[in-house]
Amino acid sequence: MSHRPRTRTVRCCALLLAPLAVAATACQGSLSDPLAAKPYDAAEQVSANASGTHKVDPNKPLEITATDDEARITDVTATDAAGRYINGELSVDGKKWRTTLPLAAGTRYTVRVSTEDEDGLPGRKTLQVDTADSDNRLRVKFGPESGTYGVGQPITAELSKQIQDPKARAVVERSLKVESTPRVEGSWHWVDGKSLHFRPREYWPAHASIDVHSTLEGLKVSKELYGGPANPVKLRTGDRVEAVTDAAAHYMTVTRNGEQINSIPVTTGKPGYSTRNGTKVVLGKEGFVRMRGTSIGIPSGSSDAYDLPVYWATRVTWSGEYVHAAPWSVRSQGADNVSHGCTGMSTDNAKWFFDTVRVGDIVKVINSGGETMTPFDNGFGDWNMSWEEWRKGSALGGDEGAGTGARSEQRPGPADAARLRPQV
What we know:
By secondary structure, the chain is mainly β. It folds into three domains: about 40-130, Sandwich (Immunoglobulin-like); about 135-235, Immunoglobulin-like (Sandwich); about 240-385, Beta Barrel (L,D-transpeptidase catalytic domain-like). The protein is built from four helices and 28 strands. The strands form seven sheets. It has a five-stranded mixed β-sheet, with no helix packed on it. Strands 1-8-7-4 form a four-stranded mixed β-sheet, with no helix packed on it. Strand 25 (about 305-315) and strand 26 form a beta hairpin.
């Protein structure tokens, strides 16, 4: 064996007539202590199932083998570039260590191996092992874009591929990180196989900082599917601004951080066009919108037909529900519901509301004859689902997915165009 000169234990002999204490003292000074020895280079004692330009197949375990008959492996730690450890097991005889969890694709692992020789002296070796990349990647796009939003803004994660298997969903969800200051209780909810929403149990605190990122890249999600990249987003929340419209009383009350800042006479949807009840989130603001009845199926010759220029329009659903200026219905505002589903108010009040709210703020309607806002298919109705039901949409279950360590102005695609129908 050429890795190092062996240190042999010195055998000491004492005259039989010498006192035992003297003999013991002489022997103690010449014993070798394996625990105090400086670890030698174990390069010739161990090998990995990868060398040079050869890369480990991430679908197969990483193996470290003791190649010297007179040495054994005592410990192995393997970490990736992000510092994540990967579990492994060591054979009883100390001759082989292998990973017990899937490897990440396209990743470099630092493997630290500890050994000992036949005399019990320690050896050390650090190996760099690369895994082969994969073209089959699951990419993630977080929303909204980095910026400041209202306290009702959910976080979204859009996946590049459908994920249906519960175990694969758990891998994905566990890797999507939401960290807030102050910390809140929150959870991801699978809307469908490609979309997840994250919200706290209650609204976000005012002036919170929220960091959203992924640790999925390279991780094995399912057979031959590996995590891909995701750009992180950083969000802040502004003041807690809430607008509550009582459709029966015909007034909107606006509060900031719990204190009332305005009470506005309004008109909401008339019978047959009743405004949706429930909690909505501001999706965007448009200074001018052309609203036509034909966009929501009203024939141009109908008595309900309309074609109007609308100003200071704050959108709350993709199907065309707004809070906007309605100078034609000022006489009804505060007294009657005459709109086709939107919340109308005077031009001055609509301008004030437009300037006061931001994307992500809360707009709630109560005491209307309309149905309740749906959770996911017409904007952000996430808050209309109880926390218990919301948690059932997590792939992790229990408390694993709860806690933190929010599509702003969603850009609808062609398939959404038919739903973007203004209504007055």
